[in-house]
């Protein structure tokens, strides 16, 4: 597989691993989303000043308001974070 195909496969596997923990297999509960963020994006949580910010981030992931994070919502988060990190390099 190419690097991009590998990256896509890792995103899908990561989401599926955490979504399989409880509730529906195709969505993340708040607890699953929090666990994913803590284990897979620890640097992101370090910059959060307090638990309220983390809770706000989790709530913001749920674009459609169904109290769960589906794969599309997860990918939007990862894409936004990737763009933010890419732009920090100072290249134009």
UniProtKB/TrEMBL annotation:
Protein name: Protein S100-P-like isoform X5
InterPro entries to which the protein is assigned, alphabetical: EF-hand-dom_pair (IPR011992), EF_hand_dom (IPR002048), S-100_dom (IPR034325), S100/CaBP7/8-like_CS (IPR001751), S100_Ca-bd_sub (IPR013787)
GO BP annotations listed: endothelial cell migration
EF-hand domain ranges (all copies): 49-84
Alphabetized PROSITE patterns for the sequence: EF_HAND_2 (PS50222), S100_CABP (PS00303)
Annotated signal peptide: none
GO cellular component, one term: extracellular exosome
GO MF annotation list: calcium ion binding; calcium-dependent protein binding; transition metal ion binding
Organism from which the protein derives: Cottoperca gobio
Keyword annotations from UniProtKB, A to Z: Calcium, Metal-binding, Repeat
Pfam families: S_100
Gene3D superfamilies: EF-hand
């Amino acid at each position: 597989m190419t690097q991009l195909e590998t990256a896509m496969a890792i995103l899908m596997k990561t989401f599926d691993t955490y979504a399989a923990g409880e509730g529906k297999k195709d969505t993340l509960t708040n607890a699953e989303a929090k666990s994913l963020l803590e284990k897979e994006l620890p640097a992101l949580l370090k910059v959060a000043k307090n638990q309220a910010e983390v809770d706000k981030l989790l709530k913001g992931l749920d674009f459609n308001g169904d109290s769960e994070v589906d794969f599309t919502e997860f990918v939007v988060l990862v894409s936004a974070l990737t763009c933010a990190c890419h732009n920090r390099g100072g290249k134009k």
